[in-house]
Amino acid sequence: MENTTLSATATAITPEQLLKHWQGHRGLTRRMIEAFPEDQLFTFSIGGMRPFSALLMEFFSMAFPSVYGVVTGEWVANDVLLKDAGVETKPTNKAEFLQLWDAVTEKLNEWWPKINAADFNKEIKAFDQYDGTVIGILLYIIDNEIHHRGQAYVYLRALNVEPPPFWDRSQDL
Amino acid sequence: MENTTLSATATAITPEQLLKHWQGHRGLTRRMIEAFPEDQLFTFSIGGMRPFSALLMEFFSMAFPSVYGVVTGEWVANDVLLKDAGVETKPTNKAEFLQLWDAVTEKLNEWWPKINAADFNKEIKAFDQYDGTVIGILLYIIDNEIHHRGQAYVYLRALNVEPPPFWDRSQDL
């Protein structure tokens, strides 16, 4: 019986490790915001793709609202969730982006441990519209950040700015 | 005691799920190879960055060699590991890239289950030079593929080619 239980819960990543991994990636994305020329943040584009500011707004729209939704079953946007956090949820300059980023970092650290470990394989309808498992949704959001941040690396290189190194994620596993 | 054991093995992702997740991403990267104009594969660049062919060679250099290395403790390159697979390990056209890709897909499916589930947190020296845990190294390789593939999305858009949708990873969780 004990062996059966162990085998059923074979673990590649624990919840704590996955949060640490994500926050490591988020630290890198934060350094990308710092490195990005402020006058290009809302405008620079290649091939008709969205500017970095729009990609960041997409990250924000999913990061804390997804974890909050997984924990509570309620899908609520940042302007409501962060009402009392004292940050601008629709940033219009780099400083506001960084402040919002840091507020979300704290919220993720506070709310992630509330996810029931038994729920990672639970089927949910994320944001009341996307069917998937909890882990599937969370990995999607992490991967989406890596994917679009890779896009922003090309923007920075095209702007002749050296991006922060991809391998350096000091909070990583 | 039983609770302690359960808590120590809380699982966000199982080894089987992580392989499925990676192969889902690899299926998307394969569709990027198919979509990429063959005459630009070895040459197209933005901001001095490497062409897509060089990024693909980096993926190849890590994917199967890392899993083989984790299982055996030996760090060996594809030209040796795939000697009998009947594929070109230094592709010079799109068809050869796809053949090598598919050979690696099979090898990953064959070798990943040989990873001892208890070893994911083991400290290793990957490729005889990078210190980290097994899970840390494997996640790095998966994330690196997502990151550079995001770069290739910008190349495709700049070449006025519609890339395959990021969200479609039919083998995904």
From TrEMBL, chains A, B:
Keywords: Metal-binding. GO terms for molecular function: metal ion binding. The keyword Metal-binding applies. Transmembrane segments: none annotated. It comes from the Bacteria. The keyword Iron-sulfur does not apply. A divalent metal cation binds at H148. Pfam families: DinB (PF05163). Belongs to the DinB family. This is Uncharacterized damage-inducible protein DinB (Forms a four-helix bundle).
